[in-house]
Amino acid sequence: MLLQDPINSLDDKSESRLYVGNLDLRISEAALIKMFSPYGKIVAEDFLWHTRGPKRGEPRGYAFVQFSTKEEAVLAKEKMHGKLVCGRPLVVRLASEKYFMEGAESSFGAGGETSKSNFVAGSSAQMSKTAKIAAIKNKLKAMEEENQNSKRPKTADKLSDS
């Protein structure tokens, strides 16, 4: 009797599963499968829909595609990432990949600004809780300094006019 290790089989699944994002709302499940099928055998596809609210029944704009092997998934990722579909560049990555912001604490300057170059994965970048707190504190500090600097000249003008 052959027993499968459920943990390893789960890892194998996630290694061959792709996240496909920035999908135009006109893309259907069938179109998605047709786009990715040249790169290997698709064993599963999970097209996400809004289930509540005013957008109920509309696509969420992302999906997951499961290939039979990791190699097929990697090939599909290489070929499809950034490809324009309905005027939008697809975001394709392995579902197991994690994207974080590079140097989140140090990316915010005195003015509380950050540049897009600090993001590893653009709009899909994620920040840790600590990084978010640091960013909010830096922004608050910058806003307080800006507020104090803008109040000082007005106060001085009012005193000199009296």
From TrEMBL:
<dbReference type="InterPro" id="IPR000504">
    <property type="entry name" value="RRM_dom"/>
</dbReference>
<keyword id="KW-0694">RNA-binding</keyword>
<dbReference type="InterPro" id="IPR012677">
    <property type="entry name" value="Nucleotide-bd_a/b_plait_sf"/>
</dbReference>
<feature type="region of interest" description="Disordered">
    <location>
        <begin position="142"/>
        <end position="162"/>
    </location>
</feature>
<dbReference type="InterPro" id="IPR035979">
    <property type="entry name" value="RBD_domain_sf"/>
</dbReference>
<feature type="domain" description="RRM">
    <location>
        <begin position="16"/>
        <end position="97"/>
    </location>
</feature>
<dbReference type="InterPro" id="IPR039157">
    <property type="entry name" value="RBM18_RRM"/>
</dbReference>
<dbReference type="Pfam" id="PF00076">
    <property type="entry name" value="RRM_1"/>
</dbReference>
<protein>
    <recommendedName>
        <fullName>Probable RNA-binding protein 18</fullName>
    </recommendedName>
</protein>
<dbReference type="GO" id="GO:0003723">
    <property type="term" value="F:RNA binding"/>
</dbReference>
